[in-house]
# Entry
Amino acid sequence: MAEHDMEKMFQEKIDKEIKIEPKDWMPEAYRKTNLRQISQHAHSEVVGMLPEGNWISRAPSLKRKAVLIAKVQDEAGHGLYLYSSAETLGSTRDQMVADLLSGKAKYSSIFNYPSLTWADMGAIGWLVDGAAILNQVMLCRTSYGPYARAMVRICKEESFHQRQGFETLLVLSRGTEAQKEMCQDAINRWWWPSLMMFGPKDSESTNSDQSMKWKIKRMTNDELRQKFVDMAAEQVKVLGMTLPDADLKWNTKTKHYDFGEINWDEFWNVVKGNGPCNKNRLDARIKAHEEGKWVREAAMAYAEKRMARQKDKAA
Ligand code: BYC
# Structure
């Protein structure tokens, strides 16, 4: 069958909401786009452990420490589901990790900002996980089967993450003056970077049109960002705090919140590797990879030994 006909059949399948599975025929560009997005997503989960990992040893109580450890551990698990899902597209985990560590692969801009106070744990949970969930709920219906299935599990855990973040801020918002200030300061610092998580404006988004057609994405960057603003603008009132945007205003005509212009120069600067923590994050991942070498070797040796034993038994 000619390539053109194959592509037509492929699109018909997508239009009928039939999931694409690893062994199905797919256009090379569909494979590459999914591999790019899923591996970037996996890297984000893994690098995303760093800002929160920073506070495990300084959590204010045993309970908070246990919750934070569980959350950070969940992020590692999400990375693993996603690397496995990306591997079904023909890459290897080693290759993907090498691309992350060499600086070739992207990960979410948000994790290149520092976590300065305990309130940042709340703001990350509420805003960063909140933004991530909106995007990921849409991805539960993405057209590539292994990615969609990974997302269903991830979303369940993310909703717990967001609630724990909001609850952390709620406690601070009802605390002492210093705690209230810390809460507002964290919201001020994480708000704009959270809006950047959704990616460039639709008019600047190079991948959106094709990804929407292939139903890899179900909503555009701007649509999801607006949904997030509408949600956060209401939730912040429960905290008795404010969002740092003088232009934030309910628009009775559109029935959405209007909001101010994002600093796109800052966004691209961070994406290109020049954000406040880009170097620090990559250095930390490289160090972890090097220090984990003996663990990988030990695991391999153990797996080989087990396999040999099973072969002996079967013989
Ligand atoms: N940061 O054409 P566009 C989490 C890049 S982690 C960096 O709109 P696309 C969590 C984009 O890659 C959640 N780069 O792209 C973990 C593209 O560059 P390339 C992370 C960005 O893919 C731990 C270029 O800009 N979530 O929840 O159609 C603790 C043009 O953009 C960013 C995901 O990864 C950015 N923010 O749409 C707590 C979700 N935005 O590759 C929480 C999966 C854009 O062409 N990903 N770029 O060179 C997606 O849904 C989509 O990839 C995006 C971007 C909506 C992010």
Observations:
- Strands lie at 249-251, 256-258.
- The CA atoms of residues 21 and 145 lie 5 Å apart.
- The chain is about 70% helix and 0% strand.
